[in-house]
């Protein structure tokens, strides 16, 4: 039975972290909202259900038969062992989950660079606040997070090819997406920092060349970054430190 992924259409967003794992593993899945005749109605049927005992708060969520799993890190914790994308050592699976939760925190901060005041207001209504937030993000938060992940890679007892353990995990895929997104959103700021994170950038390049990922990136299933998603490129927010 195919996995069912529920997320907004038209953007990569948080759902992309799950898609990358499914695509790398060659897993059978259906991106429900993108299916003809389904749309967001299928997603809200579950979120707004008066009968489903374990309703998710918001997308993304994954449906595996009768099981519904919400939240990116939670979904990947569930999928990782099934897809061969989690460490074999059970204790390291929790290390991987902790790293993924840190990615979740980072992605939330990325989102807040363009919506620092009010999620219900357009970016154009909070541009000045966004400039201040982005300047602080570029100056302090990018080095804080990327420096941490670079150090984790450098100190991995199994070598610097992967962030946890000695084989590819979903965290490696997620860090690929983080670098992709930051490079799109803040190209000038990221260009200045490339030399600071050689291991992360090498990991990014290695993931991009993996056969299943390369095919996915070249396919129409991989939506382009745009200014409706989490990683948005507004030139006035880039390099404002």
Automatic annotation (TrEMBL):
Q: Can you cite a GO biological process for this protein?
A: glutathione metabolic process
Residues forming the GST C-terminal domain are 89-237
Is Transmembrane helix among the key words of this record?
A: no
The answer, when asked if Transferase is one of the entry's keywords, is: yes
GO MF entries: glutathione transferase activity
Give the GST N-terminal domain ranges.
Answer: 1-87
> What keywords tag this UniProt record?
Transferase
UniProt xrefs under SUPFAM superfamilies? GST C-terminal domain-like (SSF47616), Thioredoxin-like (SSF52833)
Protein name in UniProt: Glutathione S-transferase
């Amino acid at each position: 039975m195919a996995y069912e992924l529920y997320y907004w259409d038209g953007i990569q967003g948080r759902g992309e972290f799950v898609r990358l794992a499914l695509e790398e593993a060659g897993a059978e899945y259906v991106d429900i909202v993108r299916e003809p005749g389904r749309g967001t109605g299928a997603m809200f049927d579950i979120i707004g259900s008066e009968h489903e005992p374990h309703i998710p708060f918001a997308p993304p969520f994954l449906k595996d038969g009768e099981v519904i799993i919400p939240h990116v890190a939670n979904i990947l914790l569930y999928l990782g062992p099934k897809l061969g994308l989690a460490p074999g050592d059970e204790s390291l699976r929790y290390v991987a989950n902790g790293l993924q939760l840190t990615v979740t925190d980072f992605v939330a901060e990325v989102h807040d660079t363009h919506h620092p005041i009010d999620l219900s207001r357009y970016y154009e209504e909070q541009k000045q606040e966004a400039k201040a937030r982005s300047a602080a993000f570029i100056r302090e938060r990018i080095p804080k997070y990327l420096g941490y992940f670079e150090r984790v890679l450098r100190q991995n007892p199994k070598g610097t090819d992967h962030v946890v353990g000695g084989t590819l995990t979903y965290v490696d895929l997620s860090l690929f997406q983080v670098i992709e997104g930051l490079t799109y959103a803040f190209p000038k700021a990221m260009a200045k920092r490339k030399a600071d994170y050689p291991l992360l950038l090498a990991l990014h390049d290695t993931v991009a060349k993996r056969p299943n990922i390369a095919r996915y990136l070249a396919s129409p299933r991989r939506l382009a970054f745009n200014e409706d998603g989490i990683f948005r490129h507004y030139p006035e927010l880039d390099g404002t430190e």
